[in-house]
Amino acid sequence: MMMRGGRSLVSSPPAFSNDAKKLLVCTSNTVSVFSTATGLQITSLEGHTALVTSVVVVPPSSPAAKVLCYCWTASLDGTIRYWDFSVPELMKTIDIRVPIFNMVIPSFLDIPAVDKGKHQDLFAYVFTEDTKETQEKTKALRRQIRKCNLSKSRLVGRLILGETKKPEVLTVSPSGKFFGIRNKCKLHIWKVPDQGSEHAAVRKITLHHTKKITVIAFHPTQRVIAAGDVTGRILTWRGFGNIAFAENQKLINIQEDKPGVRDNDDADSCSTWHWHSAEVNVLSFSSDGAYLYSGGKEGVLVVWQLDTGKKKFLPRIGSPLLYFIDSPDPTLSAISCADNQIHLLKMPSMGILKTISGIKTPCCYPEMCKGLGNGIAFDQTAGLVALRTENYCIQFYSLFDDRGISEVHVCERNHQPGDDVTVIVTAVALSVDGSLMSTSEVKLAEEGIGGLVCLKFWQAGSQNKEFSLSTIVYDPHRDAGISAVTFHPSGNMVVSSSFGGDFKIWRCNNDIIQNDQMHQNFSWTCHAVGSYKKRPMTAAAFSADGSVLAVAAETLITLWNPYKNVLLAVLGETLTPIVNLSFLGKSDNLAAASCGSNPQLSVWSMSKLSLSWSYKLCIEAVASAVDSSSFAALALLPESSNETTFKGRDGVILLYNATNPVPTAIWSVKKAKGGALGFLQVNPSSVEEVDGKTPEVLLAYMSGDHEYVVFDPYCKDAHEVSISQKEGLSSLELKGQGGQYGYASIYGELPEFDKKSPETPWVPSFPSERPWETIFSGSSHNLPPLTKLCSAFLESLLEKRTAAVE
Amino acid sequence: MAEIRAEEETSTISKTFLIKPKLKSKPRTLPQTPESKYWSSFKSTRIPNLVSSISSISFSPSPPHPFAAAYSASVSLFSPLSLSDGDVSPSSTISSFSDVVSSLSFRSDGLLLAASDLSGLIQVFDVKTRTPLRRLRSHTRPVRFVKYPVLDKLHLLSGGDDAVVKFWDVAGENVVLDLMGHKDYVRCADCSPVSSDLFVTGSYDHTVKVWDVRVENSRSVLEVNHGKPVEDVIYLPSGGLIATAGGSSVKIWDLIGGGKMVHSMESHNKTVTSICVGRTRKENCGHKSMEDRILSVGLDGYMKVFDYGNMKITHSMRFPAPLMSVSFSPDCKTRVIGTSNGIIFAGRRKGKENVESGGRGNVLGFENISEPERRVLRPTNFRYFHRGQSEKPVEGDFLVMRNKKIKLAEHDKLLKKFRHKEALVSVLNKNNRENVVAVMEELVTRKKLLKCVSNLDTDELGLLLMFLSKNATMPRYSSLLMGLTKKVIETRAEDIQSSDALKGQIRNLKRSIEEELRIQHSLQEIQGIISPLLRIIAGRR
């Protein structure tokens, strides 16, 4: 079995179905159909073999036809397909053999369903790339606008409406009479010819502007066109094409005043609004034409009243806006954001009803913080992945369900797109059972002052990964950055290693406060500090039983007893600093990955305390299964070999058995830089059996732009895509309108409430006879005066010595 | 009964605004209730020297509501406005009577006045010119009452000792109807405020009869027995109830309910001679409303105010003579009582001149049927916007808590407005270390701290240096503050050199840092002593 997911929901504009109950979203090679009521995926249209670039829902010809669910999709694979997306079923495929970047079908409204005797043809206008004539023509103008006869399944021969260098977005007016594109500082508008012969002359006008135009929108009823440019201005031309598109072709050549119109363009007037500070990405008229929606990089949706220019705002969306789609239902619309979220808006009030949450895109960080790890942690039991996002959150994404579960806001800062990044979440670690989380963040210093490193411990709420903060540690390793945070298998111990040359072991004190209800309160205190020759500590790992802690001190591996904080052994030495350490399941082997000029993947035997084997490989990520001895490593391929053997794939996943240096399986992958690997435990209920046996573990690979694939590493035919899991989900969703659909399907099964564990007796606290055990915990300003501390401290030494004597 | 039910309804409405009963014990002597305060607020004026007993008093329905009093063989008109000025002389007198005048009645528009005398003659006067316009002669015995119907300008009602009630056509001076039925002197009558056809008469044969001029055979439609010779009868403003006075009791009857007695008030000691409807002001939850009362006077010299909604006496007043007649002006400002020895006690309330001019017999008289209205607060009224604000929550009410307003300190407000330097200066002035450091940290995240430092003027720089010299060596803040101190001294070296005050701050700073260095040195010495010990311990374990 194999699952893919994490695809971008915002590669091209979504489309609402005619009853506004479904939203069709282009997700790479498929079109996913989401329910607008629940925000969950219902089904998907699969068949295209490349990125789907456009989806057009057939509007109803009569009110009764509203329930019909037909759509056209166009893709880069050169096909246009016709679907019934309620079933879902492919009904027709038109292969025009050139990649389609964009498609509009303007003339739905004019088409009677069955014309008497003669069926009129349906035309689409497509933006294609001319692949054949590359040799003869200049390479610059390869992108063409062509007309396609959908009824006869072919392009209208030799009719090229326009050519541009880059693929542009075709925009069609809601009335279906015009369509246009932007082309640098120009705007081309075509009038859709009336029905008739397919070679009818298409008339065109051009409007000019001084800045690069980014987006255009047509007014639904009047001849008004709005365009946004890179500086944030919104231009509105009124009465465009009065001369060129006049019905009776008479030349009305009256020199009249055309305020704001440039270069004798064919428009009555042009007015400018300027609110956006950066380029306008979203422009859309409301269906009655009274309002204009605009949005851009600031992540603020602006509603302009067209007559007066008054503005209303929906601020704090938190991410640049990409598309705004009106639905047939006037109370619903959708905006797509650059962080892979689609928000469904309740319309006049502009409240966010539901969010279709895709996986967050990787965030880009300043140079100095590269190499701190990719900030991706896998929750093995629940099949979740925790990844840091741009808005200082940790997103929990369900790999099996392919949807966002929750977000934990880590820093107390609001994110505004376009701000300078001053706080960075550097690491995230999850305990094995997924109930505890630890994050570290760095506040960047301003010219050397005011930097701050924070280590935070979180505990999960009762359900649904709602984490609450339990402990904050400021500057845990003085001012040095944290290189790694790892949980002990038992969950009550965390090690954090720093570049400053030490590592700290944090222990969890589990206080149970007895209020009306049981309330567990975790507090974390430093249990031990260790360092090895003041070398920077670059990686840390606990063994599977938790008895050994391995900390990488640059090129050496130090082994410690985490409970007593005693150095057990030092393993020696790699060529470059180790960035990744991992104990290999239950076996007594340790894998270490180092990067730099001499990258190395080495496996060390704990029993012999020596190197078993090593490869010279640049390892991006290492993952080991909990209870088997095999491990997987994601290796980046050297750049020289890219072109020839691997067809653009830049990484391989190698599956090893710990003792055997020959990999048991190899998969080549794309976009491995910044990728992550994780083994997931199989929950038998969630996975369909393949060939009568369930796979023991699943391997999840997440690529650099957060697309992922989950597969059984031991299955021979792992490349065969099985979608059984998804169909199970979709049938559940369809049934969900009526009956078996409730708490469990949204929040998952209720956790088994163990009655025994809360019954830990409530111990009344009494002054300990060993005050030194607690006296140093807590923050520095709570410390008692030096005179008190000193005696207690010396007393503790005395006590330990007697213990040692015995 | 309808009257009472309506009253109960209003009382249930008022229940929602119940004020908590006070737990204080009641004082022994009852304080003046608002109502008795109201009734005693009529400033009484004596009009003396009218020859004999005042047999009848009548108010004109048209403002300014002059009233006429009949005494002996003359009728005097008084103006209430001059009364309040202390002028007790009548504004005019009609004396074209041959016998004692028994009864007076104004027409509903206040232009005509009908008067009857004991000779059996009824005369209709023009009030202005005081000339008799019509003389109605038909009664063979003394006429005891004459009454203009409330809604009718053309007819008159009269009755007298011949036990016949006559319904006159005034213009033609002829009798329309002779209503026979009473067996003794007919003494009093009143016309329905809601219908021009209904009226009620009371007689010495103890009965009160309700007549309807539309009934053909001229028989009464309803009859109630008062039990004593009836001296006076009135319709209450709703038209459904009547009050009768006879003997020492006043009884209230429900006409709609078929002539059932509702209540009998027995608080006079002697014969009740006259009753009328008065109105009192009632204040309920801040808005005023008018309520009707029955005013009764008797030979015992008492005037009693009877609340027929709650069936109790709300006020009583003693006068030094037997009282013969009472009347209450429609604008609720004048109350006139006539005595048997020729004195009129005219009470006049002070107050705004345009108090509701409602009351009995306003131009059309329709106001009489209206319930004692509670004025609905409208958004045009200012109090509308304050209504209910002083209400206390009742148990069981759902309380909607207002969100707590977040109070921001000054530096937070300035930070919100991106006025970074001002925020830093304001927090430096506040003398709170934690806040200063927090603001500095926030400025660092906004990458604005050094810019702020370079923009500080000399005084503000002094503030900053003072703060740094005090706190730079604190271990908790030193990581941030030591770096900042360095930067400040580097960037602002010229300013510091040019100012003596700043140089002083720098000296302080230097001193505290030297002290810190000393401490560090001694600590290092201690560490040097301890660390071999620790090594030994670690080796032994």
TrEMBL record, chain A:
Domain (WD repeat-containing protein 75 second beta-propeller): residue spans on this chain: 391-650
UniProt xrefs under InterPro entries: Beta-prop_WDR75_2nd, Quinoprot_gluc/sorb_DH_b-prop, WD40/YVTN_repeat-like_dom_sf, WD40_repeat_dom_sf, WD40_rpt
Intervals holding WD repeats: 273-314
Pfam families membership: Beta-prop_WDR75_1st (PF23869), Beta-prop_WDR75_2nd (PF23769)
The organism's place on the tree of life at top rank: Eukaryota
Location in the cell: Nucleus, Nucleolus
Keywords, comma-separated and alphabetical: Nucleus, Repeat, Ribosome biogenesis, rRNA processing, WD repeat
Protein name: WD repeat-containing protein 75 second beta-propeller domain-containing protein
Organism the protein comes from: Hibiscus sabdariffa (roselle)
Automatic annotation (TrEMBL), chain B:
Species assigned in the record: Hibiscus sabdariffa (roselle)
Subcellular location: Nucleus, Nucleolus
Keyword rRNA processing (UniProt): yes
InterPro entries in UniProt: U3_snoRNA-assocProt_15_C, WD40/YVTN_repeat-like_dom_sf, WD40_PAC1, WD40_repeat_CS, WD40_repeat_dom_sf, WD40_rpt
Domain U3 small nucleolar RNA-associated protein 15 C-terminal: 392-533
Pfam short name (any one): UTP15_C
Keywords associated with the record: Nucleus, Repeat, rRNA processing, WD repeat
WD repeats: 136-178, 179-221
SUPFAM superfamilies, alphabetized: WD40 repeat-like
Official protein name in the record: U3 small nucleolar RNA-associated protein 15 C-terminal domain-containing protein
Bilayer-spanning residue ranges: none
